Automatic annotation (TrEMBL):
It comes from the Bacteria. Keywords: DNA-binding, Phosphoprotein. The modification 4-aspartylphosphate is found at residue 54. Residues 3-119 form the Response regulatory domain. It holds the Pfam family GerE. Residues 136-201 form the HTH luxR-type domain. InterPro entries: CheY-like_superfamily, NreC/VraR/RcsB-like_REC, Sig_transdc_resp-reg_C-effctor, Sig_transdc_resp-reg_receiver, Tscrpt_reg_LuxR_C, WalR-like. This is Response regulator transcription factor. Coiled coil: none annotated. SUPFAM superfamilies: C-terminal effector domain of the bipartite response regulators (SSF46894), CheY-like (SSF52172). The keyword Protease does not apply.
Amino acid sequence: MIKVAIVDDHKILTDGLKTLIEESGIAKVVCLWHTASDCRASIGSCKPDLLLLDVGLPDMSGVDFCKELKQRYPDLKIVALTTHNEYSVVRQMLENGASGYLVKNAMTEEVLAGIDAVANGNIFLCHEVDVLMKQPKERQLWLSQRESEILKLVAEGLTNGEIADRIFLSPETIKSYRKNLLLKLDAKNTAMLVRIALEQKLI
């Protein structure tokens, strides 16, 4: 029986996942957290074989948390569970030690197949992500209308606070958008972000 832990801030999703896993007969859920800090505090005593990790956690990036967990627990198998299906996010999760990648609308059978495959030492990408990774890289970037709007304002040199005032969102929300844009465009800083955006004609 595979011991699975889940860290995801969407309670309805985690409750559904827990039921699905418990009823499968191949695994059981031994721990469930809604933040990275809660997971960090007790994963050592929980000792799961496999962790389903949300990329968009409320208190830190799941991409960074994946790297941290693999450094602390090299034997822990990690499967990304997320709404993000961008090439750069998938690649960074795999580079940081994830062995599987599932989008949240994946079929029930894919979720269980992913848990089983990764627990047995294999790499597993759900069908949607597998198709994405085989496409030419230049076709793999898609920005929402809000992301495009914020990217243009970043390129104009506005701070998070100034952008927040301009489009009536909180500075924290803008910070989160900016972080996601860096991740999506595979940029290390704002200057690189703007350069890539110009090269790819996103602004």
